[in-house]
Amino acid sequence: MYQLIYISSSTKSLSREEFIELVAQSQSKNDAMGITGVLMFKDGNFMQVLEGEQEFIAQLYSAIKVDPRHTLVSIIQEGPISLREYQGWSSTYFNSEEGQYEVIC
Fold this sequence. Notes:
The chain is an alpha+beta fold. 29% of the residues lie in helices and 44% in strands. The chain has a six-stranded mixed β-sheet with strand order 4-1-3-2-5-6, covered by helices on one side.
């Protein structure tokens, strides 16, 4: 089991609805590869934890680095883990209008 944590900036503003759509797309792809984790979005920035087999994490991260929705992609931490911290998917969106985080799923 492997975990990778990265941060990036969005190349455009994302509304709550656009974030929910992004989460839905990501979940279906990640589920097929056995990847779990969490995705957070605040003030135009992403932070994501990815967990799964190292090969699949590497493939996904390679795709994220060239995804035109991301810029300034940087790994914070990566390495083997003994257990998943996230058994499923969790996503959080910072609602700037209300000044609070919303758990999307």
